[in-house]
Each structure stands twice: as C-alpha cells, then as structure tokens.
Amino acid sequence: MKDATQFLQALGIATDSLEAAQGVKPSAERNAFLQQAWDEDFLQPFDPSAGQEAQLQQDMQNHALRLLGQREHGDKELLEKLRKKFSSQVEDLKKYGIDEAQFNEQLQSCLAHCQECNWQSDERYIEQLVSSLLAKGQGPMKIRQKAQQKSSRTELLNDYLDLDKDALLEQMRAVLDKKYGVKSGAKGAFLLPKDKAKQMRFLQSRGYSPELIWRLFR
C-alpha cells in the first residue's frame, strides 16, 4: 500500500515545496507532516446530503422555470405547485438527514431565486389576473378572493381594483345582457320579484358588491 508521500506524488503534488512552505525539514517529521496533509485534504467526511440538497434545488428551479414559462404565477401558487411536485422526495431525503423543515427552506430558496432572476413577479401576476378576470365579467370581490389564494402581495390589488363605479355598472349590465338577454333587468325589462332576485344573486356570485347591485336595479 502506498504511503502518504507516494500518493501525493502520484497526484502531481510536489511534496518538497509543500514541506518548505510549512517549514518542515526533511527528517523524521516528514512522514508525519505528509500524513497530516493527506488526512486534512483528502479524507474529509463525505456528506451525501449536500449533493442531494443541491440536486433537489436544481430540480426545483428547473420545474419552476417551466411553470413560469407557461404563464405568470403568484408566489403562493408557485410554492404550492413545487411542494406538490417534490413532496414525494422528502421520504427519500430523510435518510440523509433532510427533514420537512429543510425541505421548506429549499422551497423558499427556490422562490427567492426565481424572484431575483425576475422569473416570478407578483406585480405582473396580479396585473394579469385582474385584467383577465375583469374581461370575463368577474367583479372586484371575486378577483380579490382569487388573488388572495395565489399571492401574498394582495396589497397590490388596490392599484388595479380602484375602479370607477360607473364603469363597474356598465360591466355589470354587460354581464347580465350576456346571461339573460332581453330578459335582463339591466335592459330595463319588467321583472317579477323572483327573477329580479335571481339576477341579483347571479351578480353577487360573480363578485359584485350588494351596494352596486342595488344601485343597478333601482
């Protein structure tokens, strides 16, 4: 079996220069010094969890990029999808000492990386969400509820949901016209109380406030 000197020399390490740098004279100390260098530099304990965590983080980032390449996501939505995708690996990682808390740290690290790279933006997500749902006839209350489920930055909603009441009333009329046509109360048609109540409940289900609904039908 090769001693420390032979092994270091086989790796192309000049043992004489190594000794000189450390002030070790060619003597009985020589082998002891080289053995210590070997122990310190080549026999470090192997930590399998480090490689596993690094691979998990890379896999998370790759999957997050694929998701964000398809459409914008809120931060809460992205974390939930990553958790669902990779939670099955937690049991495999436990044998390396990676527990649920460390898994959560990996998720947060991935989110932070996505935000630093500008892959994920709650500002862009909320702007797109509000625009899309308004175009589909959804009201402010429904939009706010949806955003709260997907993003932690719901304070951004105030910039996009500060809508003119007259504009909202016009939108509500369009929603009723599309649903009920000539029988819509928005067209000024005479409605039986039960039909009026039905249309009012429909607008409420779409996320419009009772105040605006009453204003539209009065």
Automatic annotation (TrEMBL):
Organism whose genome encodes this protein: Thiosulfatimonas sediminis
The family this protein is said to belong to: Belongs to the RecX family.
The keyword Metal-binding is assigned to this record: no
Main location: cytoplasm
Domain RecX third three-helical: 169-216
Superkingdom of the source species: Bacteria
Pfam families to which the protein is assigned, alphabetical: RecX_HTH2, RecX_HTH3
Subcellular location: Cytoplasm
Keyword Protein biosynthesis: no
Boundaries of every RecX second three-helical domain copy: 121-150
GO biological process: regulation of DNA repair
InterPro entries per record: RecX_HTH_2nd, RecX_HTH_3rd, Regulatory_RecX, WH-like_DNA-bd_sf
Record-given protein name: Regulatory protein RecX
Keyword entries, A-Z: Cytoplasm
An example Gene Ontology CC term for this record: cytoplasm
Transmembrane segments: none
